Amino acid sequence: MSPTSAFHPPLTQPAALDSGLRTRGFAVLSARDVCALSQADAAHLQGLGTLWDDLPPDGYLKDGGRYRRRRHSCFVVQTDGGVQQAAQRPHWQPLEYNALHGGMRRHFEPMAQVIASHAAWLAVLQWLGRVASNLRGPQTWFAEAHQFRIDTTDGIGRPTPEGAHRDGVDLVAVFLLARQGIKGGETRVFEADGPNGQRFTLGEPWSVLLLDDARVIHESTPIQPLQAGGYRDTLVVTLRATGFQGD
User: 1.10.357.140, 2.60.120.620, 1.10.10.10, 2.40.50.360: which CATH number matches 14-240?
Assistant: First the structure.
């Protein structure tokens, strides 16, 4: 990967998804390909976007900001494709992976049940389990799902206030849900142990960035308003073998 100045995401062809993750450590898929691969209904996925309008504020931001709202739920994806929602639990990361907010047990409100049990969402989770198994081998996956809205209440919003980072998991999926009245929010992906990287801007609702968390680090640059009330909505899903972090 050589650095580029183009903001258009480098889309991966579906047939090259698994090889792309293995060779580059990341892949970007269009919304159309997400739906085709997961067999999730496109209209149903788009309809879920309204559920980002009632996210509670994130009360754990150490920089004192008011720009982030979120919900968080956990799921177990079995090797046979079965999905069970886990009991609500705090989100925890070690300081090794999140120097700003690591070491804290952060308690967030769960995802609304209408999305947590929705057929389209479960189809996406099942597909992500297959992607992770193709990358690491078939096994049970422990998934954490985070609904985020980053807004410009403070004049600037920081999607990743911890900076470029890994998450301490096996697979990370960053779905772009909406961009409204903002500039910035550029995605940056770098080799974890090398100098190369790539930058681009996700703009299509339900397009996704998939990351092999062992091989790359990632961040999103701050957003600024182009009009009052600007925001950026994402859905971040992490999948980890052996259990949830903090167990």
Answer: 2.60.120.620
